[in-house]
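User: I've been trying to design a sequence by hand for this structure and keep getting stuck. Would you show me what you'd pick, starting by listing the structure so we're on the same page?

Assistant: Good idea, let's start from the same input. This is the structure you sent:
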């Protein structure tokens, strides 16, 4: 499918948006229903989690939704240059140990991979409960001279809160029950 997701899989020429670490896919499902003129692909390595989102997509007949079960480390093998309009990273594993920095989904090595298929100006959104991962991402965006669009450590008290950011994943619901603040950052390469 590399380079031809819209035409070959979705049978249209609409923009394609990715959700990385999608788990059960609540964000992809929510966005696909909200934006029928875009295509959404949830990516995760755990088949049993993806199954939940895929089941919902089939039961509800959501044509602009797909899931891809891969290691995100291999993502450049699945998407071609300029193929992706936007990326969402929803509550990824924070990998707090220094020794696991390279596993964080906003580590520069991952960002370089995303750059190979993101359209010019395409935005990357991160929602996380983890303050350490949020700070790390803010610092990375600064160090790499990337473009900040939005960032807040109190999403629901901020000016950015809207119906798109109000979509809640399985993990977010758990964190909110424990009164955890939700961090959000949106940035792009140019
Ligand atoms: C904390 S869960 C969040 C799931 C979902 N976004 C949510 O908020 O409910 C993190 C997810 O990332 C996936 N994941 C972690 N590392 C990954 C990798 N290298 N490649 C693909 N998926 C990965 C896990 O399988 C898991 O489903």
């Amino acid at each position: 499918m590399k380079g031809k997701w819209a035409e070959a899989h979705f049978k249209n020429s609409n923009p394609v948006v990715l959700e990385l670490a999608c788990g059960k896919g609540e964000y992809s499902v929510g966005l696909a229903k909200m934006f029928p003129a875009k295509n959404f692909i949830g990516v995760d390595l755990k088949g049993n989690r993806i199954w939940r989102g895929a089941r919902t997509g089939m039961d509800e007949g959501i044509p602009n939704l797909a899931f891809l079960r891969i290691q995100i480390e291999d993502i450049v093998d699945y998407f071609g240059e300029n193929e992706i309009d936007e990326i969402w990273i929803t509550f990824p594993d924070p990998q707090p140990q220094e020794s696991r920095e390279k596993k964080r989904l906003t580590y520069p090595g991952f960002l370089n991979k995303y750059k190979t298929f993101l359209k010019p100006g395409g935005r990357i959104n991160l929602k996380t409960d983890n303050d350490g991962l949020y700070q790390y991402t803010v610092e990375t965006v600064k160090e790499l001279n990337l473009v900040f669009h939005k960032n807040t450590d109190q999403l629901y008290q901020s000016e950015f809160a809207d119906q798109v950011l109000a979509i809640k994943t399985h993990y977010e619901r758990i964190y909110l029950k424990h009164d955890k603040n939700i961090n959000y950052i949106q940035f792009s390469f140019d």
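That's my pick for every position. To get oriented when you compare it with your attempt: Residues 15 and 38 are 5 Å apart (CA to CA). The longest strand covers residues 118-128.
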